[in-house]
Amino acid sequence: MGYVLLTAGVLLWAYSHLMKRLTPGLRARMGENGGKMAVSVMSIIAIYLMVKGYGRAAPIDLWNPPAFMTHINNTLMLIAVFLLGLGYSRGVLRSKMRHPMLGAVKVWALAHLLVNGDLASVILFGGLLAWAVVDMIMINRQTPPWVRPAAGPVINDVLYGVISLLVFGVIAYVHLWLGVSPFGG
Length: 185
Known about the structure:
Blueprint: H1 2-22, H2 24-56, H3 69-84, H4 100-115, H5 119-142, H6 154-177
Helix pairs in contact: 1-2, 1-5, 3-4, 3-6, 4-5
C-alpha cells in the first residue's frame, strides 16, 4: 500500500503544479483564486500521500550507494538550499537564472538519489526530479522569453549566502532530530 500512496502523491504533486499548462481550460474556469486554492489543496494532499507512502513502503534495495556520496549529497544540498529562494533575493545572482526554485528541486532530488538506493526513494526523488524537468521545459515553451531582473548589489548575495548556510544547518538538525544523519555514519 505504501508504494501506491507514494506514487499517487508524486503524480498528484506533478499534476497540481502542471495543471495550468496541461489543463488550462479547467484551471481558467476556477478563476485566479480558485485555481490557486485547488493547487494548494492538491499540494497538501500530495505531500501527505508522499510522506505516508514513503514511510509505509516496504524496503526494496536496488543498489548500495558508496559512503563518499554523502559528501556529494551535502554539497549539492547546500546548492539546492541556496537556489531555493534565489528568485526572491536582491543581489546579482538572481539575474542569472530563470527558474531557481525548480533548479533547487532538481538538485535536491538528484542529491537524494545519490545516497538512497531503495525503490521508494527512486519513486519519490526520481518522480519529483522528472516533474521539475518537465515543468521547466513546459514553462520555457509556453511563456514569453525571460526578461532578466535588474541585478542588485553583491552584498545582498553574500547576505543571502549566509542565510542559506543557516537554513542548511536547520535542515541538517531536523534530519538528525528525525534520526537520519545527513553526515553519514
